[in-house]
Amino acid sequence: MKVHGKPTRAVWLEPDACAVGIIDQTRLPHAFVTARLETLDEAAHAIRAMRVRGAPLIGATAAYGVWLALRADASDAALTRALAVLGETRPTAVNLHWALEEMRRVLTPLRPVERVEAAKRRAAELCDEDVAINRALGEHGLKLLEAAWEKKGRKGRLEVLTHCNAGWLATVDFGTALSPIYLAHDAGLPVHVWVDETRPRNQGSQLTAWELGQHGVPHTVIADNVGGHLMQHGQVDLCIVGTDRTTAQGDVANKIGTYLKALAAKDNGVPFYVALPSPTIDWRLRDGVREIPIEQRDGSELSDVTGRLASGEVATVRVTPEGSPSANYAFDVTPARLVTALITERGVCPASEAGLRSLFPERAEV
Ligand code: MRU
């Protein structure tokens, strides 16, 4: 996508080929700041501190993190350590483990002297594959948006609600949930997006709103609890969200609060779609509520809010009483029964084991 008219991905190999470039997402929307990652520890820290975040982007950055580690030491022990360090950065998004497993598969049989170039090459390929996947799932999602627009009699605006950030900032490019929205906007559909603010990290109000604004997509930021009201009043035609891990039976882990949106959508007959690249499917799991590990983050993300003061200075302030503890669950699981359909790079399918396996027949029963 473009930032200030310049094509940009969310992660890249720096032109001197000596470092990995990222956008420091903790600085958005107040400042667009890029950073260079030069070591394994810098890559791991960037993921842990959410300078990069979003399931596909975490995976892509981790793949490059393996390369950074091997540049310093390409031995078997160093490879094992890099995979372990990166694998522990965040627990819920399965793309992280998928990407690391892919790096392990490619690199383990090689001699140390061959590994550095191979790691750089495979990480770059994973990034390109992510872009192609997101573009393809966007095309499939676009058909759903076009159908909804027809169903609405092409009147007014096509009202879409999204939660968290599943745009290009959460991937290498295009995004997952936002990919069909960008394509629809570019095709001339009058899309308007209700953007959940997505407390506590505000990925909606800080990242999704920024992205959509950069691309000129009409949008409105709403508090997290507004969606149900809008749905009751016919102001949402459909919901689209991303996911951090989807089980073989179609249960979906996504940013905390997604489940409540899906319940409200079901109650109001609003279609609830989940857009996902296939590396987000965890074929080993079935019951998402019981089996998907849910990240719990520091309570300060809830008690403290960061914003820009009238003076222009960016500051963090406490918004809860001193002494009140906070519980900060980062994700929840939406059971498949609440999901209208899954949008993948191979097409759209019911959120069910049969649906997913019909698109991915090579995934034999495990
Ligand atoms: O905690 P985050 O910001 O990494 O969570 C991101 C999300 O929940 C996204 O919606 C999800 O990764 C889908 S991204 C394409």
Automatic annotation (TrEMBL):
It holds the Pfam family IF-2B. Gene3D superfamilies: translation initiation factor eif-2b, domain 1, Translation initiation factor eif-2b, domain 2. It comes from the Bacteria. Substrate binds at residues 53-55, 90, 203, 254-255. One of its GO terms (biological process) is L-methionine salvage from methylthioadenosine. Pathway: Amino-acid biosynthesis; L-methionine biosynthesis via salvage pathway; L-methionine from S-methyl-5-thio-alpha-D-ribose 1-phosphate: step 1/6. Keywords: Amino-acid biosynthesis, Isomerase, Methionine biosynthesis. SUPFAM superfamilies: NagB/RpiA/CoA transferase-like (SSF100950). The record marks 164 as: Transition state stabilizer. Its EC number is 5.3.1.23. It catalyses: 5-(methylsulfanyl)-alpha-D-ribose 1-phosphate = 5-(methylsulfanyl)-D-ribulose 1-phosphate. InterPro entries: IF-2B-related (IPR000649), IF-M1Pi (IPR005251), IF_2B-like_C (IPR042529), Initiation_fac_2B_a/b/d (IPR011559), M1Pi_N (IPR027363), NagB/RpiA_transferase-like (IPR037171). The active site is at residue 244. GO terms for molecular function: S-methyl-5-thioribose-1-phosphate isomerase activity. NCBIfam families: eIF-2B_rel, PRK05720.1, salvage_mtnA. Catalyzes the interconversion of methylthioribose-1-phosphate (MTR-1-P) into methylthioribulose-1-phosphate (MTRu-1-P). Belongs to the EIF-2B alpha/beta/delta subunits family. MtnA subfamily. This is Methylthioribose-1-phosphate isomerase.
